Amino acid sequence: MFPGAATPRDETPTPGRTAVGRPTAAEPVHRPAAAAADGEDRVTEAALRPKDLDAFIGQARVREQLDLVLRAARQRSVTADHVLLSGAPGLGKTTLAMIIAAEMGAPLRITSGPAIQHPGDLAAVLTSLTGGEVLFLDEIHRMSRPAEEMLYLAMEDFRVDIVVGTGLDATAMSLELPPFTLVGATVRAGLLLPPLRDRFGFTAHMEFYDPAELERVINRSARLLEVEVEPAGAAEIAGRSRGTPRIANRLLRRVRDYAEVTADGAVTRQIASAALGVYEVDGRGLDRLDRAVLHALLKLFGGGPVGLSTLAVAVGEERETVEEVAEPFLVREGLLARTPRGRVAMPAAWAHFGLVPPPGPSRAAPPGHQNGNSGQDDPPGGRPGRTTSPAAPRHRPP
Ligand SMILES: Nc1ncnc2c1ncn2[C@@H]1O[C@H](COP(=O)(O)OP(=O)(O)OP(=O)(O)O)[C@@H](O)[C@H]1O
Ligand SMILES: [Mg+2]
After folding, report:
1. What are the C-alpha distances in Å from 166 to residues 46, 122, 163?
2. Which ligand ends up closest to the CA of 45?
3. pLDDT of amino acid 117
4. Is residue 371 lining ligand 1, measured as CB closer than 6 Å?
5. Residue 349's closest CA among 357, 340, 341, 339?
6. 64 burial type by CB count under 10 A (0-12 exposed, 13-18 middle, 19+ buried)
7. Is 226 annotated as a binding residue?
8. Which domains does the chain have, with CATH numbers?
9. Is the pLDDT of residue 297 over 80?
10. Is there a binding annotation on residue 18?
11. CA of 96 to the centre of ligand 2 (A)
12. Ligand 1 within 6 A of 382 CB?
């Protein structure tokens, strides 16, 4: 009845993200370390999600700031300000959205950008909200432009303007909305146009987790899953989890399988290391996609610069997958740089593969050297806070 309303994330089509973990035509990609959730994950994820801010591990600053926002709203008995959560896949955005609703004692409505392609979809969701409700709009950067404009008014004035009837009978109607809290999630705040970004009262940038925090995530999940994990085993998994709780949980489950099948079920460092070797997660946590991206960059393009589209084609993935799933971690690890002229391999990438960079100042490519890519379609990926120009990529479903 209300398209897009109360759609659980699992049932929402996410066009740009379906590429994640999907087998390519050339080769089925098995990615135990992939950051996006698939079937089995989602079931376990629901069970492993922390339910309140105290149980939410890491992200100390975000937790403190959010706690203040929510407590102040509770004290004043008003709905909390709109919250934007940005961060790479699997860092806890959906989890935090659920926690916000729980902490406010408010019902939670879940929908996502790809489910909102017409303003009518959004109007249906908005007009069905009850007072104080938390509306979680996942992948908000994939919402259609006309719907986005409707959202501006709803966020600011709690009002929607809708047109009833067609042709000469069409009449504009303005509907009042009950106060609600919008929680938007995006992989990068820079993908949102400033008018939308500025309407959020609080923006939380989720950072990658450090190994000690991931160890806590693993120990907590091990308790819930009733897996016996030695401290050294947890440390081994944490070090290979790409700074991402979802991956830590996933690797824990794969290591548990290995421990149960080949040993007595206890996760030691040795078991964890052997299991992760089987799943091709290397000592630095790079998985098949990460390695494919770096390998293409180094071997096919001499270390770059190369445009994102070219790189994505070379590894047989969607550009969004390379940009949103692989690159944030590679950039953070100092393995890859996004430059105005394209992607460039950093010295650590050459070293990781035991390769020697070609001689000469090739890291700073000469003007015009784009390795077969104009670079026009490949501006460097946005950093948090980057102002998005109209020419910048805004991922829309096809
Ligand atoms: N701070 C945390 N403490 C403990 N577990 C966490 C934390 N953050 C995330 N997790 C675990 O990681 C899983 C993935 O988190 P979540 O689904 O919230 O990520 P996300 O940022 O919404 O990812 P996506 O961008 O793919 O939607 C959760 O099920 C939860 O078990
Ligand atoms: Mg999510």
Report:
1. 44, 19, 8
2. 1
3. 87
4. no
5. 357
6. exposed
7. no
8. 9-205 (3.40.50.300), 211-278 (1.10.8.60), 286-387 (1.10.10.10)
9. yes
10. no
11. 9
12. no
pTM of this structure: 0.79
200 near 184, Cβ under 8 Å?
Answer: yes
Q: Which ligand neighbours the alpha carbon of 90 most closely? A: 1
Sign, Cα dihedral of 208, 213, 217, 218 = positive
- Calpha distance 40→29 (Å, rounded): 16
How far apart are alpha carbons 80 and 155 in whole angstroms? 12
Distance (Å, whole) CA 388 – CA 363: 27
Ligand 1 touching residue 94 (CB < 6 A): yes
Structure confidence at residue 40 (pLDDT): 65
Query: Residue of the nearest CA to atom 6 in ligand 1?
Result: 245
Nearest CA to ligand 1 atom 30: 49
Cβ(388)–Cβ(193) below 8 Å: yes
Cis bond leading into 379, ω under 30°? Answer: no
Tens of pLDDT along 118-162?
A: 888 999 999 999 989 999 999 999 999 889 989 999 999 999 988
Which two tokens mark 252?
């824990």
Specify which residues 83 forms β-bridges with: 183, 202
Per-residue tokens: 156: 């600011």
Q: Over the range 90-103, which residues count as b (16 or more CB within 10 Å of their CB) and which as e?
A: bbbbbbbbbbbbeb
Q: What is the pLDDT of residues 184-227, one digit of tens each?
A: 999 888 888 899 999 999 999 999 999 999 999 999 999 999 99
Which stretch of DSSP H or E encloses residue 164?
A: strand 159-164
Cβ neighbours, 10 Å, residue 303:
24
Average pLDDT value for residue range 170-180: 90
